[in-house]
Amino acid sequence: MASIAPAELRAMAGLLDELDYYQLLEVPSDAPSSAVKRAYYQATRRLHPDHNRHLAGEDWETIQRVARRIAEAYQVLRDVQRRRAYDDQISGNAGATRIRLVEAQKKAGKEALDAHMGKTANGRRFFNLSRSDIDRGDLAAAQRNLKMAMTFEPTNTAFKRKLAEIEDALKSESSKNQHMIR
Questions:
Q1: Cβ(76)–Cβ(104) under 8 Å?
Q2: Whole-model pTM?
Q3: 76 shares its domain with 124
Q4: Whole-angstrom distance, CA of residue 88 vs CA of residue 134
Q5: 51: containing domain
Q6: 62 phi, psi to nearest 5 deg
Q7: Burial of 125 (0-12, 13-18, 19+ CB in 10 A)
Q8: Which residue, 108, 139, 172, sits at the end of a domain?
Q9: Separation CA 83–CA 48 (nearest Å)
Q10: How many CA atoms lie within 13 A of 163 on its CB side?
Protein backbone atom coordinates (compact mmCIF):
# COMPACT_ATOMS: atom_id res chain seq x y z
CA MET A 1 0.00 0.00 0.00
CA ALA A 2 1.30 3.45 -0.88
CA SER A 3 2.48 5.87 1.75
CA ILE A 4 0.73 9.19 2.17
CA ALA A 5 1.78 12.28 0.26
CA PRO A 6 2.85 15.25 2.41
CA ALA A 7 0.10 17.50 0.96
CA GLU A 8 -2.57 14.88 1.71
CA LEU A 9 -1.20 14.45 5.22
CA ARG A 10 -1.39 18.20 5.89
CA ALA A 11 -4.98 18.31 4.62
CA MET A 12 -5.90 15.37 6.86
CA ALA A 13 -4.19 16.96 9.85
CA GLY A 14 -6.27 20.10 9.32
CA LEU A 15 -9.44 18.03 9.59
CA LEU A 16 -8.23 15.68 12.33
CA ASP A 17 -9.90 17.55 15.21
CA GLU A 18 -13.21 17.70 13.34
CA LEU A 19 -13.38 13.96 12.58
CA ASP A 20 -15.03 11.61 15.03
CA TYR A 21 -13.57 8.14 15.51
CA TYR A 22 -15.96 6.57 13.03
CA GLN A 23 -15.05 9.08 10.33
CA LEU A 24 -11.37 8.69 11.11
CA LEU A 25 -11.50 4.93 10.63
CA GLU A 26 -14.04 5.29 7.81
CA VAL A 27 -16.62 2.94 9.34
CA PRO A 28 -20.34 3.46 10.01
CA SER A 29 -21.37 4.01 13.63
CA ASP A 30 -23.12 0.62 13.71
CA ALA A 31 -20.11 -1.27 12.34
CA PRO A 32 -19.28 -4.51 14.15
CA SER A 33 -15.97 -4.79 15.97
CA SER A 34 -14.56 -6.94 13.16
CA ALA A 35 -15.11 -4.08 10.68
CA VAL A 36 -13.52 -1.62 13.12
CA LYS A 37 -10.49 -3.89 13.42
CA ARG A 38 -10.17 -4.22 9.64
CA ALA A 39 -10.46 -0.45 9.19
CA TYR A 40 -7.85 0.14 11.87
CA TYR A 41 -5.34 -2.19 10.22
CA GLN A 42 -5.97 -0.60 6.82
CA ALA A 43 -5.44 2.88 8.26
CA THR A 44 -2.26 1.91 10.08
CA ARG A 45 -0.80 0.30 6.97
CA ARG A 46 -1.14 3.63 5.20
CA LEU A 47 -0.64 6.13 8.02
CA HIS A 48 1.86 4.54 10.40
CA PRO A 49 5.07 6.54 10.92
CA ASP A 50 7.25 3.52 10.11
CA HIS A 51 5.59 3.28 6.71
CA ASN A 52 6.15 7.00 6.11
CA ARG A 53 9.83 7.34 7.02
CA HIS A 54 10.33 9.65 4.04
CA LEU A 55 8.54 12.44 5.92
CA ALA A 56 10.64 14.93 7.86
CA GLY A 57 10.22 17.82 10.25
CA GLU A 58 6.64 18.96 10.80
CA ASP A 59 5.28 16.27 8.52
CA TRP A 60 6.95 13.60 10.69
CA GLU A 61 5.34 15.06 13.83
CA THR A 62 2.00 15.26 12.02
CA ILE A 63 2.06 11.61 10.92
CA GLN A 64 2.83 10.61 14.50
CA ARG A 65 -0.14 12.68 15.74
CA VAL A 66 -2.43 11.09 13.15
CA ALA A 67 -1.22 7.59 14.07
CA ARG A 68 -1.86 8.25 17.76
CA ARG A 69 -5.38 9.46 17.00
CA ILE A 70 -6.06 6.36 14.89
CA ALA A 71 -4.84 4.13 17.72
CA GLU A 72 -7.00 6.11 20.18
CA ALA A 73 -10.04 5.63 17.94
CA TYR A 74 -9.42 1.89 17.73
CA GLN A 75 -8.89 1.54 21.50
CA VAL A 76 -12.27 3.19 22.14
CA LEU A 77 -14.34 1.62 19.34
CA ARG A 78 -13.13 -1.95 19.82
CA ASP A 79 -14.34 -2.13 23.43
CA VAL A 80 -18.13 -2.32 23.87
CA GLN A 81 -18.26 -0.28 27.08
CA ARG A 82 -15.83 2.41 25.90
CA ARG A 83 -17.69 2.60 22.59
CA ARG A 84 -21.01 3.07 24.40
CA ALA A 85 -19.50 5.84 26.54
CA TYR A 86 -18.10 7.50 23.40
CA ASP A 87 -21.43 7.22 21.55
CA ASP A 88 -23.21 8.76 24.54
CA GLN A 89 -20.74 11.63 24.61
CA ILE A 90 -20.91 12.47 20.90
CA SER A 91 -24.70 12.17 20.79
CA GLY A 92 -25.06 14.49 23.79
CA ASN A 93 -22.51 17.02 22.61
CA ALA A 94 -22.66 17.88 18.92
CA GLY A 95 -19.13 19.32 18.92
CA ALA A 96 -17.44 16.41 20.67
CA THR A 97 -15.40 14.21 18.35
CA ARG A 98 -13.15 12.40 20.77
CA ILE A 99 -13.00 11.03 24.25
CA ARG A 100 -9.83 10.41 26.14
CA LEU A 101 -9.16 6.72 26.67
CA VAL A 102 -8.88 7.25 30.43
CA GLU A 103 -12.27 9.01 30.45
CA ALA A 104 -13.84 6.20 28.45
CA GLN A 105 -12.42 3.55 30.78
CA LYS A 106 -13.55 5.46 33.85
CA LYS A 107 -17.06 5.97 32.51
CA ALA A 108 -17.35 2.36 31.34
CA GLY A 109 -16.12 1.12 34.72
CA LYS A 110 -18.62 3.27 36.61
CA GLU A 111 -21.47 2.09 34.38
CA ALA A 112 -20.47 -1.54 34.91
CA LEU A 113 -20.24 -1.03 38.68
CA ASP A 114 -23.60 0.76 38.77
CA ALA A 115 -25.18 -2.03 36.77
CA HIS A 116 -23.71 -4.68 39.05
CA MET A 117 -23.97 -3.03 42.45
CA GLY A 118 -26.94 -0.74 41.82
CA LYS A 119 -27.54 2.86 40.90
CA THR A 120 -29.69 3.88 43.85
CA ALA A 121 -28.71 3.93 47.50
CA ASN A 122 -31.55 1.59 48.47
CA GLY A 123 -30.83 -0.74 45.56
CA ARG A 124 -27.20 -1.02 46.66
CA ARG A 125 -28.19 -1.45 50.30
CA PHE A 126 -30.56 -4.35 49.66
CA PHE A 127 -28.20 -5.92 47.12
CA ASN A 128 -25.38 -5.86 49.68
CA LEU A 129 -27.71 -7.34 52.31
CA SER A 130 -28.53 -10.16 49.89
CA ARG A 131 -24.83 -10.81 49.35
CA SER A 132 -24.35 -11.08 53.11
CA ASP A 133 -27.29 -13.47 53.27
CA ILE A 134 -25.75 -15.62 50.54
CA ASP A 135 -22.44 -15.70 52.40
CA ARG A 136 -24.29 -16.93 55.51
CA GLY A 137 -26.15 -19.53 53.43
CA ASP A 138 -29.58 -17.95 54.03
CA LEU A 139 -30.98 -18.05 50.49
CA ALA A 140 -34.54 -17.18 51.54
CA ALA A 141 -33.36 -13.93 53.13
CA ALA A 142 -31.16 -13.23 50.09
CA GLN A 143 -34.20 -13.70 47.86
CA ARG A 144 -36.27 -11.24 49.95
CA ASN A 145 -33.50 -8.63 49.93
CA LEU A 146 -32.97 -8.97 46.19
CA LYS A 147 -36.69 -8.54 45.58
CA MET A 148 -36.49 -5.36 47.67
CA ALA A 149 -33.51 -4.18 45.61
CA MET A 150 -35.55 -4.87 42.47
CA THR A 151 -38.33 -2.58 43.70
CA PHE A 152 -35.84 0.29 43.58
CA GLU A 153 -34.17 -0.81 40.34
CA PRO A 154 -36.59 -2.97 38.35
CA THR A 155 -34.49 -2.85 35.16
CA ASN A 156 -31.16 -3.83 36.72
CA THR A 157 -30.09 -6.94 34.82
CA ALA A 158 -27.45 -7.93 37.38
CA PHE A 159 -30.11 -7.97 40.12
CA LYS A 160 -32.43 -10.01 37.90
CA ARG A 161 -29.69 -12.50 37.10
CA LYS A 162 -28.70 -12.93 40.76
CA LEU A 163 -32.35 -13.33 41.80
CA ALA A 164 -32.83 -16.03 39.15
CA GLU A 165 -29.72 -17.84 40.44
CA ILE A 166 -31.01 -17.75 44.01
CA GLU A 167 -34.48 -18.91 43.00
CA ASP A 168 -32.96 -21.81 41.05
CA ALA A 169 -30.85 -22.74 44.08
CA LEU A 170 -33.93 -22.58 46.31
CA LYS A 171 -35.88 -24.80 43.91
CA SER A 172 -33.12 -27.39 43.76
CA GLU A 173 -32.77 -27.25 47.56
CA SER A 174 -36.53 -27.71 47.89
CA SER A 175 -36.59 -30.69 45.53
CA LYS A 176 -33.72 -32.32 47.48
CA ASN A 177 -35.70 -31.89 50.69
CA GLN A 178 -38.79 -33.42 49.06
CA HIS A 179 -36.77 -36.49 48.06
CA MET A 180 -35.38 -36.87 51.59
CA ILE A 181 -38.89 -36.75 53.12
CA ARG A 182 -40.17 -39.58 50.90
A1: yes
A2: 0.53
A3: no
A4: 36
A5: 6-108
A6: -65, -45
A7: middle
A8: 108
A9: 23
A10: 19
